[in-house]
What does this fold into?
Amino acid sequence: MNRSQHIFGSGLVFAVGIWVAWISYTQAPAEAFLFPRLIASVFVVLAGWTFGKAVLGLSKVGSGVSRTMFLNMVPGLVVMLIYVFWAAKTLGFYTATTIGFFILLSLYDPAPHSEGKTWIKRAVVTACFVAVMYGLFALLLSVYTPREILF
Amino acid sequence: MDFIFYFGDVFSPLSFLLLLGGTIGGLILGATPGLSPTMAVALLIPFTFHLEAVQGLILLGAAYTSTVAGGAVSAILLKIPGAPANIATTLDGHQMAKQGQGAKALQLSFLASAVGGIFGVLLLIFLTPLLAEWALAFGPSHLFWLAILGVTVIGSLDSASVVKGLLSGCIGLWLATIGFDDIMGAQRFIFHPSLGGGINIIAALIGLFAIPQVLTMFAKGRRTSGAEVIEVQKHSVLDATKELIRRPLALGIGTITGSIIGLIPGVGGQIAGLVAYDQTKKFSSEKEKFGKGHSEGVIAAEAANNAMVGPSLVPLLTLSIPGSPTAAVLLGGLLIHGIFPGSDLFDNHPDVAWTFINSMLVGQVLMCLFGLYVAGLAARVAQVPQSVMAAIVLALSVFGAYSVQSSMGDVYVMACLGIGMYFLERFGFSAAPLVLGLILGPIAESNFIQGGMIADATVGRASYFLSGGLNLFLIAVVVASVAYSAWMELRSRRYTTKEEAQA
It folds into this structure.
């Protein structure tokens, strides 16, 4: 992992540490923030130490995120974010899961995209999976999940 | 001998069915690369809401036991350890499989796992009540230091960098303070309505363990598991049993090493397997065969990683300090059922505690029986493409997190923590101490406040928290564990630098 990634990662953690410490030491009532103050103090010291090491180029632990890994991950991450933060609630859990699952399979399945057979296979796997999820959660466990469109 | 009275409860129809389901499911999950025992147990927790506490724990315990053993299947047949605990198994197990002895290696691994596992659970049965009695002497200051000890030991031993491990623990402790405080009812760190009730442990566990795996699979791109399953030819179980009996050194070292390592909080199955393998190699009369497909290597590694399971629950059930990341997830499972492990667990809930422990004993036998016969099938399941696995785990995580409290807020928290943890892991931070901080944070805080009140009325805070034999002992262990890990880290870095210079 390159130095700038170390600096960025540990810098972000250090910034969170400072923010936590600032809130802990400035918010009232003081009694409620006694324990957070204790933690925040240790947090800032350790995060500062890690950040300092990263700046000096002494950080060795961690492999970072390579460009290839990041580019591979982005489509899946975007689908995941849309699924979790928008589709699950708006379209309903089962509809969103069907769409999300099929898209993820299509994006990452090593089988060729040019053959009709592989698309049918993906559709069957998706249908089977959603049926199992419905059986497990809706029928067996009686968990009510948001159902907006279709089911 | 109280445990004998609760043996019958394990065989009630639903409990036994869950034990069977957890064992078979655990074997398959364990054999699937990328699904660690911790993640498997975290994903199963939402299913236990609808069960009695004891039945939920039977399911989780069975899954814990058999995922560790199931990891040997992919280690042997695919050369991919199902979990870090099976790394040592790949060294000789895969070589044996390549030499046409795959079935023998699998049989030996399950038999050795059962022997190690049963010994480990017996240790759990006999040590837990003793330690629970000792734990009765603990006051608020001791419990505070104990919670800190849990976080620091896992933080320093489970991570490649001591500072980053401890920092992960701090992040977890801070996350535990989000929400309303118990004493004043004041809002703390609530910057989104989803955080009003604090961070739900189960949603956090699912997010911290499952989502980074999903992202890791995404990051690999369009790839299959990349390994071909080696065909398993038939081999007599009786011959494998005879072979196991002929190797008492490997079985003994594996079992004892695993049991001792399991008792130390923070030192997981990976270390147990590797240490047992290394020690067996040192004492073996056939050192030169190790790494080339020697059965002693498989026996030692598998006996050790399963022997670790039972003892890793001793500090959990007596002191509320999980001995391993998976035990931390089990603690979450106990807490959601309103069961707080500790000195009075065996007085207040003997039925739950003993039935759970007994089920682990029966689970070891079932795991061995099923393992011997479904190993080949489990290896096929292990070849499920990563794309399918990632999508399955993601959907299960969303449904699981939602079903905790029927709240979208939990799903958002799960996703945010998971994405954050993925990047933190890439920068060398570790999920286990973070989870420990999150779980032990409320224990540490409540005892810190309670102790503070007692101290203000008596000897003063400094004296209350920093004096007394038990306090000093616990502080010394905290310091020693951090110092030891720092020294080990320094030593390994020097060794690496020396090797780099020589190269």
Q: What stands out?
A: Chain A has a mean pLDDT of 88. Chain A touches chain B through 72 residues (CB under 8 Å).
